Amino acid sequence: MNRKIIGSILITILVVMGALLYLNSPWNKRGDMTLPEGVKNGEKSILEVGAQEQGERNVKTFDLTAQEKEWEISEGKTVNAWTYNGTVPGEPLRVKEGDFVKVNLKNELNVPVTIHWHGVLLPNKMDGIPGLTQDAVQPGESFTYEFIANDAGTYWYHSHQHSSEQVDKGLYGSLVIEEKEKEYEKDEFFILDEWAVDQDKRDMSNMGGMMQGAMSGDGEADTKQMYDTFTVNGKAGSAIEPLKMEAGETARLRFVNAGYQAHKLVFPEGSMRVIANDAEKVVSEKNTSNVLEIAPGERIDVEFTKQTKETAFIGQEQSIENAEDMMIPVVSENNDQAADQEVVLASGKETAKGISYGSEKPLFEDTPDPDVNYDMDLSMGMNMGEGMSFQINDKTFPETPPIQVKEGDIVKVTLRNTGRMNHPMHLHGHRFQVNSKNGEEFENPIVKDLIHVKPGEEYVIYFKADNAGEWLFHCHDNNHADMGMVTIVDYEGVYSPFELGGEKDNQPN
């Protein structure tokens, strides 16, 4: 028998065994997880740190209800979605810089939920992490989140309870903190995602995809097998609402990737310029790219100018399957029909990414002398008896070694991807400065809270421990987080009074 055929058979057997082991493993049941000792023991509860007072601030109050809904993605394509206020994405939230924000979450689902405010710098107890910063909100119960909208920019909110399922089913929405003086008259928000309209496709194919990715080096083989439909603001193809703009008009377009697959958006030549990344303004006057790559969990803002009165398109680069689903028509008031046009292929074009442009305001003018050094090795493994796993320093959460800090410490983290899958690593409660990639320093450092680490890549980042609490640092491919790729920034002297699992079924991944 041909060696390749034998190899394929062996890989298939391993995949099926690994999937069955995972589905029946103690990790998949997750009922007996315990937090690291430092997280459980301290002088002060996280509920007592980082207090923010309403004072004389303007108060913006929102009510969000987690509820089930049959959601139509496009004509003939519906999914059973979990939503905030009955839509995918959930109700868009807009506030002004300096506002005091109150969000009342009511849970009408039959499972516990939370809300995490992705990228927002807020008190630890408002971060929405079940088992770490709060108990998950039980069916029929409510919880109120309160924080000051201190930093203008693009954010989003999503459940952090069993995120690999709940975000995947639609529990997310947009959050904009507007500048005190608005910079753009027209300001639009677009959330990108992938869906498995054929729900049976989700059950086992991702296991094969992970193994295929490990063998082939395709860092997104798992997501490419799992999903069959791309969406923009919960709609696909001709169901996507057109963006209305007149010739010569300029707008701020805010993009968030809520899915697990990086997306390359192609704009008409000369029509766009990147202006912000993860809520930080960037220096991009010399931007010549018309292709934008957005990693899972990342937020990128662009300045877009409609160049003609004819219909234009912003859409997924067309070389991949399902790309035709992700096209945003840009139409004029008197020409509002989305004509059939093809998005220009991005092949050979320079691509603007999350690390392409330096930030206007770096965290550190010079490379700092760190108080804490942490090497973060990102890898993939298969533990017999426990199934497939994604690891930090050869461990899976909650056994991963925490990043132990004291308030005021300068922390250096070296992220190194020694596996063959992509890992968009997101730090809660802080922003970090990206100083180098693969040993080469950036001329202009980049301030972010998510860095997309592809196979073979190494990044060095720095941040200041200036927000006391217990904070997650995890892969924002939530399947990878669910299978172990999570650690905690653990501040000395504080502790979490909550427990993983337990009667509240706290599942933070």
Can you describe what's shown?
This protein has 509 residues and is mainly beta. The chain has three domains: 29-41 and 361-495, Immunoglobulin-like; 56-182, Immunoglobulin-like (Sandwich); 221-352, Cupredoxins -  blue copper proteins (Immunoglobulin-like), CATH 2.60.40.420. The protein has seven helices and 33 strands. The protein has a six-stranded mixed beta sheet, with no helix packed on it. A six-stranded mixed beta sheet has the order 12-20-19-14-17-21, with no helix packed on it. β15 and β16 (280-281) form a beta hairpin. α1 (3-23) crosses α5. The longest helix is centred in the N-terminal third of the chain and has 21 residues, at 3-23. The protein is globular. It is found in: Periplasm. It holds the Pfam family Cu-oxidase.
Question: What key phrases describe this protein's structure?
Answer:
disordered N terminus, 3 domains, 6-stranded mixed β-sheet, mainly beta, single chain, 7 helices, 33 strands, Immunoglobulin-like, 12% helix, 509 residues
